[in-house]
Write the structure tokens for this entry.
Amino acid sequence: MLLNFSQRSCVVTIANFHWPALLDALAQAGYAGVLADVKRGILDRFGLLGADGSDALIHPAKRTHFAEVFFPDAHSAVYLKVVRSYADATEAHEAEGDDIWSDPGAAATSVHNNYQLDIGEIVPIDAADGDRLSEFHAAVTLALGSFGVAEKGLVWTGGEAGESASLPFATKPVDAPDARALDLAAIFRDGKLNTLMERFAAGAGSFTLEEYLASVPNREETEYYIDKLFDMEFLGEEIVVYSRTTGAPVIRAKDRAALKTLSDMGITSAEGRPLEEEDVRRLVTLPAASKAYVGGTWAAQTFLVSVLQKMCHAIGDIQAADHDGDLSLLYVRTGAGGLVFALSPGRFTDKNTKELWRAVGKSTEFKYFVFGAEGVDDSAANSLGTLAGKTRVVALPDLANFNAAVVDAVNNERMTTLREILRDLETQLTVDVAGLIMRRCG
């Protein structure tokens, strides 16, 4: 299953912070902590549930970080992490202590008042349009009010599209592809009209459809796709009438309807024959507005932006690098460094690796995805891996398998990031079994 997550963070001053009290306040708002329930179950098995100081056994006061997960419905989770801030590492170590089960006394409180709070939501991407995180955010804000924290004192960051910080390159917005763009990209991906596009890329301004169709093996299928491009107004056409006698051009018309209008006006060829009885051919042209689509990486970029949107990346978080070079660069803002996609119109080579590395300021903070319309050289991917770290480079396949590969690669990166974010939750279940046994038997 494909998952999406979003997170918000803030730093706040809380006097006399008490983790169990915060969990109780959230429970009253309908958010019962799963890990706290597990811990209570452990106390119950040891016969210590409700015993004096039992809260201290499952919520040690000397911890520097706390975390909890909640299940608002059957398919989603929200979490809360609270981390104390210290002046230096020594102070943090002394506060944490070596015995997490030590008795903190009657009041499990902290004299250290600065805390970082992280809240987040994890949900399947097909159910990512709800307001779970906003609702949980409201519940956390209300719970913090019991510690005297005013809502205006909570400045949350993250979870929304915005400017990316400290990028080594300038960026500009990208447009979300519409249905026409996706249909057009699909035609290019199928490769049925590669030779047609190559003619235009080589500088051909126009040519007759009959001439082109005579040179391709599958005439009917090719003509079908060309007609689709005519319908989409990607290709332009003119009707050219040639004399059946001399082969010389007689007249040109915008389309067949215009040719019929001329015939209805009584216009004939020089030999006096009706225009429809002469050699009528369709002339294929490429309008100026379509020239940007020929060659380059337009189709790959169109699919890429579409897939990223389907994976819940806001269009405002997807930016094109303002870059002069052979590569097209896209940057995706995430909660962990960001993703950089480098798309080559030809083969992705060692030269492209050098170009990319210069463009990103030799940064090892990004995850890199490289694509070449004609493939990716192993040496290019390997050299980028040497520079950025092998686990931070993914080579994407050709357009036929492009979408699925992007989904897998981005999802794998997302799961890696999510596991790191949730690692604090795992430490919350640390249990000193020996200490529990001795307390039970003592």
User: Anything to note?
Assistant: The longest helix spans residues 402-427. Confidence is low (pLDDT under 50) at residues 87-93, 95-111, 160-164.
